[in-house]
Design a protein that fits this description.
Radius of gyration of chain A: 16 Å
Distance between the termini of chain A: 37 Å
Number of helices of chain A: 6
Largest sheet of chain A: 6 strands, parallel
Shape of chain A: globular
Largest interface: A-B, 55 and 55 residues
Number of strands of chain A: 8
Oligomer: homodimer
Chain lengths: ~180, ~180
């Protein structure tokens, strides 16, 4: 089954603000084909950044405010497979074949202090290596593997600028 | 040819300090099997963080201070393939088969204000999507694809703690 729908939620301590990590998580989700990301708190600066990326580079990715537990509950009601990315989980490479058979996902990435409940509520707890590294990298590799790299070919509609890939230098097409 | 050696360099404006992004780049490089990362400036706080990760989780990953141009020159002298990750480059999926035939790499990721010279000096300019997202995610996907996911199985020697993967909760083995 091809991927039908992918959403991302960031779970974790809501008072830790980390503008740059959140920006990376949003832009990675967008670039790799997610429809939206849910955050416990949405700050205006982040919305502005993502809005500007959409206007310039296309697509309709959105940042939504949502308490993680509600987001999980709704995802389950919609029949999404919920996958929590954690270094403590089963190795991605042992679960990816199974995950590729699913059509709709909620991928959960942790910030600081992930509540233990997430481990119980998620359909899968999956590790992208059991080493400490980066939720941004773990999210990227998981989305990439589940889609077998197909997400790299995604075309974003309604753009102002589009990069023309090139071996040297920078080529950009401006839509008039 | 299997991967023999992988090193990472961060190229870009040396005065922009971004402790968290640099930490993610270091830990992703380590977790996915690089030997070291070169940074223009190395701050003590970052060295301490990476040192503590090594002591706890094993392996001999290092953070090195090095001007990017010197790092590139030495990499070329050693016969490494230099790959610059940039949203302007050729799609990764069109270059990855070719890259898998190489044995030793220097992967370059950009910070703010990458000098134009990098585009000319790199053997490959490769894009992980042509959308703006995150150098952390781009690095992760590139390393993952070049190694066909083999890096996820890497075992780190000389650890104090090791995670025992599990479907629910957290299991950690402490070496006595």
């Amino acid at each position: 089954m091809g991927l039908k729908s992918l959403r991302v939620v960031r779970v974790g301590h809501r008072y830790v603000r980390d503008y740059r990590t959140l920006t990376h998580l949003c832009l990675v989700s967008r670039a790799l084909g997610a429809e939206c990301i849910y955050l416990e708190e949405v700050e205006k600066e982040l919305l502005d950044t993502v809005g500007e990326v959409n206007r310039t580079w296309g697509g309709g990715f959105s940042v939504e405010q949502g308490a993680w537990k509600k987001v999980f509950r709704e995802a389950k009601e919609e029949g999404r497979t919920t996958v929590h990315l954690t270094m403590y989980g089963d190795p991605l490479q042992e679960r990816v074949e199974e995950l590729r058979k699913k059509g709709s996902f909620l991928l959960a990435v942790g910030g600081p202090k992930v509540p233990g409940e997430v481990y119980r509520l998620a359909d899968y707890n999956v590790a992208v290596t059991s080493q400490p590294h980066s939720e941004i990298a773990a999210l990227a590799i998981a989305i990439h593997d589940i889609q077998k790299g197909e997400e790299l070919k995604k075309v974003f509609g309604d753009y102002k600028l589009r990069i023309v890939p090139s071996a040297r230098g920078k080529q950009v097409e401006q839509r008039t």
